[in-house]
Design goal:
43% of the residues lie in helices and 16% in strands. It is of the alpha/beta class. It has a domain of 157 residues: Alpha/beta knot, CATH 3.40.1280. The strands form two sheets. A six-stranded parallel β-sheet has the order 5-3-2-7-6-8, with helices on both faces. It has a two-stranded antiparallel ribbon with strand order 1-4. The relative contact order is 0.21.
Length: 232
Amino acid sequence: MRRETPELFALNSRDVLPANPEVVCAALEPLLTEERKRRIAEVIAARSHAVAPVLDGLIDPHNVAAVLRSAEAFGVQTVHLVANTEPFFASQKIAQGTQRWLDVVEHPSPEACFQALRAHDYRVYVAAMDGEITPEALAEEKRVAIVFGNEHAGVSAEMRELADGAYTIPMRGFVQSLNVSVAAALTLRAAMRGRPGDLTAEEKLVLRARYVLASVPNAHAILEEQLRRSVS
């Protein structure tokens, strides 16, 4: 898919909130329905940092978007990117806006990514045909980062060397591998099974503000006017 296709967007780290999260919530939550506020609360309560998908050089925007969508669907909060020679692009049609609800963190190299994950006590597993464990075993790890490699070359040699181990998805047919987006969906579902939400109170408040901001049409303009009135 050509990178200039209109439906594609560059996947970057999220923007900083335009105001204190309490201020954002106070200004915009009255504009939401009670049903929407309940849904936001339910989603935040189930969010977890326990499982962290890592995209290691993925190039197909459809695959990138599909992994984002699966991560969001299963309650994962943060997706890590290992920089490639080209920026990460995702398909808006496939992502369906799920990037708004996630944290996206980009790392300049496999080493930098591994160090960041280690600093937060993650064990790192790569997807490989010769993996020694199954996705279900990943759910037993307290914190686990799961590396999904490039569509053609797989996980980079650097990341594989740094990882704690490899896992595989058992298959009974003639095929030896799955599309990375399918593999990610199966893996994230298995790895997240039975895990409760684990965000801190502060993280929940920030997410609440972000989700409210993303749920109100013209939110930035409304918030700017509210702030202007409060100081005038």
